[in-house]
Amino acid sequence: MRDHDFDLEPGGSSTGDLDDPAALARERALEKVARLLEIERHADAERELRQLLAVQPHDADVLSLLSRVELEQGREEEAKETAYAALAIDAQCVDALSAAAEAHFQLGENSRAEKMLIEALGLEPMNHGLWLDYARLTFKAGQLDKAKRLCERTLAIEPGAMGAHQLLSLIASERKAHREAHTHGDLALGRVPDAVSTHVVKGSACLRSGRPFGARRHFRAALRIDPTDDDVREMLVEADRCCRVFYLPAYYFGLVVDRLPGGPFALWGAFVLSMAVLSSVGADPRVIAVVVVGYPALCVYTWIASPITRLWMKIVPTR
Amino acid sequence: MTPRSHTPASSPDEDIWDAPAADDLLRPTLDQRHDARGFGKAFDPQSLWIASFFGGAFTAALMFAINARRLGRPRQAWIVGGSFFAAGIVATVVVVLFALDQGALTDEGLGDDASRNLRGVSRVLGIVLGGIGFYLQRARFRLFLHEGNDAAKALLPCIAAIAASAIISVALVFPLAVVIAAIA
């Protein structure tokens, strides 16, 4: 649901006293795991965690962390099983509930993810990260009202939660409340100007509100921060396509049509209706001719604008 | 991993909302319909409008059923698709009966006026059913897109559904007209 910072604080069920050599060894191992995760050496981190589990197989916190590491490596089914193993040891382990929710989320099992998050929030109602996870889940499931309220709850607990502003921007964009989308995008950008996600959210808001050049600028900024992000590169190409002269009218036309109930079909209905009205009132044949030629010409242009621009972008690629 | 909050239970911050048990935000609102599973190559349900306009109720039924299966809703495909199909049959029977009442049945089947009526009814019904289908599949298609899937092209299913519904219409209308004429 989000980029996770791994919580390696001592305080798990089997941590015990740090004077205890076993507990001390556990803390050192977890510190090493944290360093490995920071440099994204997930396989090595997993090996360390498995060694820890070989000594203490009933450590719910370590199992929860292992579940997260498995998720990072795209092994959702295994991660789910590991999180459930942690919950079998400690049913009230919030980290395990959260990891199980994340695994369900990534597997598309949204209803079960919600159940896990609600359980976790019942245990830790002041955990803003869990509220934000729940907001993201409901946003994905299409419950925008609830997602918005959950974001507001997140901000009530942690006013600096950048993710909540980002999500509020996406919600507003989807509702075509572009001013609100830009406000939240700017707030997130003001707080964390050097994060890829803030530029991506702001760029998306720009692209949806008819500012393709602004969108391109933000996607470029995001790519400067992380040049390896292929998703952002795709977004930059998309924004750049909208900025090309031949495609620009089609882009704005698309924004207008999107606002019509029924989309292109409504436009087509308007064409049929106007033809019927013009014919019945005996309008000037030149006016009828303009409508007859204009609508198909518009259709043909919108059909060919995208492939021709793509071809053009192969000759002059996005920079 | 979610950051832990160590706010004491007695913190005044907790007064900003109700106790967790009474918090309506903690009431589950997602069920299995919201699970993002069973997706295939779904197309944009907006295509239902145009296809149904040209092909009528049978096209709406076929297109809806095809897309519902691709959106991981096979049961809905049968129930709603079947209902659309039934609506198409009822509309055809009504038009044929109306033609009989108006004396528009000829030895070769429906007369010109009755055929025009049938096309008109078919288009209006197609638009209505296409709209219903779009409304029913809209949310599921959004989830499909949010899972990172790309919408498939609807052109081939559209053409296939329109061709199939033309065959169904012919297979249904002419025998129906002959049977009713024979009875009359």
Describe what you observe in this structure.
The complex is a heterodimer of chains A (319) and B (184). With 319 residues, chain A is mostly helical. Chain A has 3 domains: 1-92, Tetratricopeptide repeat domain (Serine Threonine Protein Phosphatase 5, Tetratricopeptide repeat); 138-243, Tetratricopeptide repeat domain (Serine Threonine Protein Phosphatase 5, Tetratricopeptide repeat, Alpha Horseshoe), CATH 1.25.40; 245-319, no CATH class. Chain A has 16 helices and no strands. In chain A, helix 3 (60-72) packs antiparallel against helix 4 (76-89). Chain A is elongated. The model of chain A is unreliable at 8-15 (pLDDT under 50). The model of chain B is unreliable at 1-16 (pLDDT under 50). With 184 residues, chain B is an all-alpha fold. The termini of chain B are far apart. Helix content of chain B is 63%, strand content 2%. Chain B has one domain. The radius of gyration of chain B is 24 Å and the shape is elongated. Chain B has helices spanning 47-70, 74-101, 112-146, 155-183, and strands spanning 105-106, 109-110. Chain B has 4 helices and 2 strands; from the N terminus they run ααββαα. The chains are: A mainly alpha (319), B mainly alpha (184). The interface between A and B is large, with 51 and 35 residues.
Based on the model shown, name its key terms.
heterodimer, A: 319 residues, mainly alpha, Serine Threonine Protein Phosphatase 5, Tetratricopeptide repeat, B: 184 residues, 4 helices, 2 strands, 2% strand, elongated, disordered N terminus
What is the helix/strand order of chain B?
HHEEHH
Largest interface: A-B, 51 and 35 residues
Q: What's the number of helices of chain A?
A: 16
The CATH architecture category of the largest domain in chain A equals Alpha Horseshoe
Give a count of the beta strands of chain B, DSSP E runs of length 2 or more.
2
Basic shape of chain B: elongated
The DSSP helix count of chain B reads 4
